[in-house]
Amino acid sequence: MATFLINLIGSFGLGLLYGLKLNQVIWLLLGTGFFGGFTTFSTYIYEAIFLMEKGLFWKNVNYLLTSIFTGVVFFAAGMGLANFFEGGV
Questions:
Q1: Measuring CA to CA, which residue among 38, 43, 47 is closest to residue 11?
Q2: DSSP state letters, 5-71
Q3: In terms of pTM, does the model score above 0.90?
Q4: For residues 19 and 87, is the Cβ–Cβ distance under 8 A?
Q5: What is the structure's pLDDT at 38?
């Protein structure tokens, strides 16, 4: 659950930064640097393999698909919030 939540927070943060249309240097520092280090893709994959090894196929499929889907939703929410504050939407 912790990995899932960290990845959702990171997706939201990246969406927010993306929506603010920051210059490339700030994007690299915050987007790639901070949120790249903050999110936990390697742990996400480890947990997926762990579930597979335990024979929990459907739990693993649910974990993988839910993480991807909600990550996209949270990214979009971050972009929407940025657009709201920028007066775009």
A1: 38
A2: HHHHHHHHHHHHHHHHT--HHHIIIIIIIIIHHHS-HHHHHHHHHHHHHTT-HHHHHHHHHHHHHHH
A3: no
A4: no
A5: 87
Query: Which amino acid makes up residue 29?
Result: L
Higher pLDDT: 42 or 82? It is: 82
CA Rg value for the chain: 15
- Look at the chain and report how many structural domains it folds into: 1
Range of the domain at 68: 2-86
Q: What is the pLDDT of residues 9-58, one digit of tens each?
A: 999 999 999 999 888 898 889 988 898 888 888 889 999 999 999 999 99
DSSP 87: T
What three-state secondary structure class fits 83?
helix
The amino acid sitting at 63 is Y
